[in-house]
Amino acid sequence: MNIFKKFRLLFLALIICSYNTNATSNSTEKSNLKENQQVSEVFIERQNEKQFTDTIRINYNENKTILNILKAVPETTMSSWEWSEMDRKKTVDFIEKNNYLIDSTEAYNNIKYIKPNTIGIQVVDGFWTLSIYEFGVNHYFIVTNDSVGDGNDIQTFNYINNKLTPTKMINWFSKCEYDLLLKNSDNCIELVKENELTYTYDFSNKDIVEISSWFLTKDKSQHCFKGNTIKYKLNKDTKTFDIFDVYWENK
């Protein structure tokens, strides 16, 4: 083999060796880049979690009654989530001292509003409310609503002289659909049962409870129902709620 052929073979060998080295180097760089990118994404995600804070101003004296009741309601009213009695007491104690609350969980147990008569809390994919209606001095009617995708878990209590007791009916408003009925025929009763999960409940007004169906419409249901919305008004004299209005609301 002449010198020229030897040189050519040597040159080809060097090229192949250089290509393999570069390929390995590029593969290593890409792998390192991917790992670094994944680490950065995790870091950013965790950093964002830590950075979320929401300061909620709460005047303790103005909301003292409902905050004390918040400590007293049983955990069974929060069956779709969890907020222990101890944690609620710590929360209320903090508000009492500071007149504000720092929320660090954006998507869970996030207080959306608090008023002297009602509290609303966002809970993942649901919403929880506590509302109070004043029957008299140191006597309140309490309503909790744990609203999730499969319906509303409503529970009612009496709160007399700082003592909480369940009402005779777990949910005082459980038969509201029948107050909407125009006819008690079998077909209409069946229609009531079919639409049990279509009702929304508004307990935000200190004197009025509004319950409405988002499914029932006048043109399809007026043969069975007086309306798709009913309002009850607080009656302090009889310590109950009277039917205040029934009507068709456009949906």
From TrEMBL:
The entry's keywords: Signal
Signal peptide extent: 1-23
Protein origin, superkingdom: Bacteria
Name of the protein in question: Uncharacterized protein
